[in-house]
Design brief:
alpha/beta; about 600 residues; six-stranded mixed β-sheet; four-stranded antiparallel β-sheet
Length: about 600
């Protein structure tokens, strides 16, 4: 779908299946829409009769009073009924829109669990959040706005039909105004659209500029760039004000005042028609009630047209957001997340890489014909310069990406035969920057699974994390703030290690878990690492080579190719890349 050429028909096709899920609410909304139009169109007939009776010279006064009282009561009842019918239309219209938005947000949350990892690497987090929140709201606004326009069109049609019933010739005269209204709306949209796009674009730039300035406030202050930042922001605000002033001028020129002018033209045409009718047919009596009813009907036609006019801009904005939301939901899913063969409940942990090759970009291989075998319970260190393919290799093992050539086997079975969710239950990973969630120490360790307090405490103690639960009286219920900002990096890592130990996976990946930790904390984390790797097939992606000196085997990658394997001593003698890396780190430590 072309994001730059958003079509209402496309959006309607995408929205209709969601409307069908709320079919009952939608039908009730349409019912109240039609009822409100019919009730609204009936009141001018009551007005006409009241005025005609008041001006009648043949009806006795006593009969006039009684008839007028009855008509006023009917009019009052219709007005009260119209109030409730319109209220119910708005209520069910908005309720249906909110249900559709809820459905889309649920679809978007499901989509999050099915997207490939590459999507999150390429798309900023803030944009993904915006697609699920504000853009899904755009779908609700799109639906509600379209229904409001539909309601306005129904009202105009019913009111026009009532004018035809009252006086057919007047209906034809008013019909002559339709081409003017169509031309007016077309010209308005043509001239205003580009300015509204500019306003939205500049507003987005202002928001981005504010976010950038607030995030980098300390850097701005340290380099004394406050004046420059203010000047740049002022330019954006001036540009925004200029375009907003133009759009306001267009609205004032082609907006409600022009619509009012068209209404006055229609009223003048009405009076001229009735006047000429009176001159053409001598003795004909002009009905004052008819004049009043037609004038009232003109108001009832103008107000819905004004509603349509006011909704045009909101409709365009909502279409942009709606398409972004639908584009997100239409993203291609990762393969075999929940579909396919279930992995066995127990695995040994033997792993074989057989001639595995992988490319993020076509014809640019990140891994090249990689072959390697790991026995259950072994600990393997993976080293290499940045971009050598270390993390990519583990991404393939974790099924974050699908390898394109060769095979990866677990216990002799091809990895791609299993659905990814089931095989990942046997795997655990500790990242360089741990992912923590707002809640408690308990919730961040259990991750929603049921464990006893003793099991949680034993896991914490096993990784040397007693200080986590001894900081205050809350112990396991100690608060963890957003992203664990109230914890040190070492404490975050201890929680992630305890989380892994409690889950007890057979295959474990430690992705540079000690890269950003000071030397004092490293000894604590090293103790935690030794605790969690026992009895597991473990891969350690190492930045600090000191952390893998005692592993069972070390493999060295260079531009996606296996260039060395063995223990520390043999690699230091035979692999130049490993020797250079180790000497460089040892020299830095000495200095």
């Amino acid at each position: 779908m072309d994001k730059k050429n958003i079509k209402k028909s496309t959006l309607l096709k995408l929205t209709i299946p969601r409307i069908k899920k709320e079919k009952k609410l939608f039908l009730v909304t349409v019912l109240f829409c039609i009822l409100s139009a019919l009730v609204s169109a009936s009141t001018p007939f009551i007005t006409k009769n009241i005025i005609d009776i008041i001006g009648s010279t043949t009806t006795p006064d006593s009969e006039k009073v009684l008839t007028i009282i009855i008509l006023i009561i009917i009019y009052f009842v219709l007005v009260i009924l119209l109030f409730f019918v319109r209220y119910l239309f708005q209520y069910f219209n908005n309720l249906t829109g909110m249900k559709i938005e809820k459905t889309l947000r649920e679809e978007a949350m499901v989509k999050i669990n099915h997207l490939p990892v590459d999507y999150y690497s390429l798309e900023p987090d803030g944009k993904i959040v915006a697609k699920i929140t504000s853009d899904s709201n755009g779908v609700r606004v799109f639906y509600v706005t379209m229904m409001s326009i539909f309601n306005a069109l129904i009202n105009v049609s019913v009111v026009y039909a009532s004018i035809i019933i009252m006086e057919p010739m007047l209906g034809l005269i008013i019909l002559g105004l339709v081409p003017f209204i169509v031309v007016w709306v077309t010209l308005y949209r043509k001239f205003s659209h580009k300015f509204f796009v500019r306003v939205r674009e500049i507003s987005s730039r202002i928001t981005g500029k504010l976010n950038e300035d607030i995030t980098g406030a300390l850097i701005v202050q340290s380099f004394t760039q406050e004046d420059k930042i203010i000047d740049e922001y002022d330019e954006l605000v001036k540009d925004h004000c200029h375009n907003t002033r133009i759009t306001a001028g267009i609205n004032n020129t082609f907006g409600f005042e022009l619509l009012s002018l068209l209404k006055r033209i229609a009223e003048i045409s009405l009076l001229m028609y009735l006047g000429f009718t009176s001159l053409d047919f001598m003795g004909a009596t002009i009905s004052l009630g008819l004049i009043g009813a037609i004038v009232e009907n003109l108001d009832k036609m103008v107000n819905p047209i004004n509603t349509i006019f006011n909704n045009l801009n909101e409709l365009e904005d909502s279409m942009v957001g709606a398409m972004r939301c639908y584009d997100f939901i239409a993203e291609i899913n990762d393969t075999n997340i929940f579909e396919g063969k279930e992995a066995p409940s127990v695995i040994t942990g033997d792993i074989d890489f057989k001639n595995v090759s992988f490319s993020y970009i076509e014809n640019t291989k990140v891994l090249k014909d990689f072959s390697y075998s790991v026995k259950s319970g072994q600990t393997i260190g993976i080293v290499g310069h940045t971009g050598s393919g270390k993390s990519t290799l583990m991404n393939l093992l974790m099924c974050y990406n699908d390898y394109q050539e060769g095979d990866i086997l677990i216990d002799g079975v091809k990895l791609n035969e299993y659905n990814k969710a089931s095989i990942r239950r046997h795997m655990g990973i500790v990242l360089q920057t741990p992912a923590l969630f707002e809640g408690t120490i308990r919730s961040n360790i259990t991750m929603g699974n049921s464990y006893t307090d003793d099991e949680i405490l034993n896991a914490i103690r096993s990784v040397g994390g007693e200080r986590l639960i001894n900081k205050d009286d809350l112990m396991l219920d100690s608060k963890v703030s957003f992203r664990g900002e109230n914890l040190s990096l070492g404490e975050k890592q201890l929680i992630s290690f305890a989380r892994i130990l409690l889950r007890d996976p057979k295959i474990l990946i430690l992705d540079e878990a000690t890269a950003n930790i000071d030397s004092e904390t490293e000894s604590t984390i090293q103790h935690a690492m030794n605790a969690v790797i026992k009895g597991r097939t473990t891969f350690i992606i190492a930045h600090r080579l000191s952390t893998i000196k005692n592993v069972d085997d070390i493999i060295v990658l260079d531009h996606g190719t296996l260039v060395g394997r063995g223990d520390h001593n043999s690699l230091y003698k035979t692999c130049d890349i490993y020797k250079d890396m180790y000497d460089s780190q040892f020299k830095n430590i000495q200095e």
